[in-house]
Amino acid sequence: MKVMIRKDSKGTLSAYVPKKDLEEPIVSIARPQMWGGLVTLANGWRLELPEMAADTALPITVEARRVAGGED
């Protein structure tokens, strides 16, 4: 699914899923960097993000995969 990752002026990362009209803060990153790993959103969804360079500029729209175990 398409997901836009952005960082606000306070440095908080969030994910916006246009298909669901859902925007939630990213509350957990499973690896030292989020690219190529799992992130958890405030609503419980877990998303697997693609591999990208650590210094990738935000905001960016990526193709992410929702991983089982998150809330609907």
Description of the structure:
By secondary structure, the protein is mainly beta. It has a single domain, classed as Beta Barrel (OB fold (Dihydrolipoamide Acetyltransferase, E2P)). Helix content is 0%, strand content 46%. It has no helices and seven strands. A seven-stranded antiparallel sheet has the order 6-1-2-3-4-5-7, with no helix packed on it. Strand 3 and strand 4 form a beta hairpin. The chain is globular, with a radius of gyration of 11 Å. It starts with a strand and ends in a 5-residue tail after the last strand. This is Nitrogen fixation protein NifT.
Note the topology:
Layout (H helix, E strand, L loop, with lengths): L1 E6 L5 E5 L4 E8 L8 E4 L4 E3 L11 E4 L1 E3 L5
Antiparallel strand pairs: 1-2, 1-6, 2-3, 3-4, 4-5, 5-7
Protein name: Nitrogen fixation protein NifT
InterPro entries: NifT (IPR009727), NifT/FixU_barrel-like_dom_sf (IPR024044)
Organism: Paraburkholderia lycopersici
